[in-house]
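U., I forgot to send this yesterday:
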Amino acid sequence: MQPDLTLTQLAQTIGTNRTYLGAYFSSQGTNYYAYIHDLRIRYFVARYRELATAHEPIVAQKLAQESGYHSYSTFSAAFKQRMHKSVAAWMHEEVLT
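Result:
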């Protein structure tokens, strides 16, 4: 959830280089940025559900920041692209289920 994590930093952390890591993502039909957005959105969803189950207050902007986003608008656009609905619409549906 590190906000400024680059492909090079991730490659170094796991003991490879950015070219091989980039090729791996490509072989999986994705790229580094799509992978990071997916990971961060899955984290957001998991934390949202965890807080909802515990009846804790939920602030989407705070959770987006916790998920690694500097900007709520960037998070919101990535969320909508992956979940096919706005953050507010998704949260509303979660409350109903």
